[in-house]
Amino acid sequence: MTAEIVVQSLVSGLLMGFVYALIAAGLSLIFGLMEIVNFAHGEFLMLAMFATFWAWTLGHLDPLVALPGSTALLFLLGVVVYKGVISRILAAPMLAQVFATFGLAVFLRSAAQFLWTPDFRLVQNPWVSGRLSLFGIFVGTPQLTAALAALAAFGLLYWFITRTETGLALQATAQDRQAAALMGIDTERMFALGWGIGAACVGVSGALLVNFFYVFPDVGSVFALLAYVTVALGGFGNVPATLAAGVLVGLVEVLVGLWAPAFKYVGVFGLYLAVVVWRPQGLFGKF
């Protein structure tokens, strides 16, 4: 193993880490707002990837062109899921909330298998393809594009929740929903908005991943597990910390993969277990 291969792998891990962070940001936002773990988050990502794939197949739209549509579609899906499912179980026991989102995940995955079969699909010849050579290090153009776009989307999300009045209302609702309601904030609207933004994050991620990743009904489970680990590492509900945690997950994945590709996820989950034992609130969590 040469130093060039190690650097090459670190760059790849860094790029994928940005995408992991954006996927996890939506999950963290929803948990921070309502303390509900969305077990259907991976299936939201799967639907975003299929929406982008079918836009390419039926409408001949490149994934980058279809990205705004995928984002808007997933935002709408998030709001509909909140209004149709989540708002009805807000006061229910935690187990009911767990089974509701878990059941939604099973339903969405089964529906995808029924409608589109378990076959693997791939977008052929997207606008971004091939690789670039930067200082002797080869970087996949689709991965670089996905990382830069994910970083930009993450920055936009951070600006929204920290610099806009609506974003501050979201934070106020997350900290104390009763106090926020007394201050005149429509918490019901904030919850729906939070689910919409959380789903929109995977809408962006899914459209970017389609450029270099296969699309199939179970694809969401791969990224959902990494998203849960990322959220736990960063600290539940801490959206900015998911960026650092996502990069850490990406780097650990590639470094362990260099040593033993079959055990790359063992390294990620081993890190997760070590952090949970040492610091249950996550690396950047306060509580």
Task: Please sum up the structure shown.
By secondary structure, this protein is mostly helical. Helices cover 73% and strands 3% of the residues.
Plain-language structure description:
There is one protein chain. The chain is an all-alpha fold. The protein contains 11 helices and 2 strands. Strands 1-2 form a two-stranded antiparallel ribbon. Strand 1 and strand 2 form a beta hairpin. The N and C termini lie far apart (41 Å).
Topology overview:
Blueprint: H1 3-34, H2 41-59, H3 63-84, H4 94-116, E1 131-134, E2 137-140, H5 141-163, H6 165-175, H7 177-182, H8 187-209, H9 219-234, H10 241-259, H11 264-278
Antiparallel strand pairs: 1-2
Helix pairs in contact: 1-5, 1-8, 1-9, 1-10, 2-3, 2-4, 2-8, 2-9, 3-8, 5-6, 5-8, 6-8, 9-10, 9-11, 10-11
> What is the string of SSEs from the N terminus onward?
HHHHEEHHHHHHH
Low-pLDDT segments: none
Gap between N and C termini: 41 Å
Describe the strand arrangement of the main beta sheet, using strand numbers. Answer: 1-2
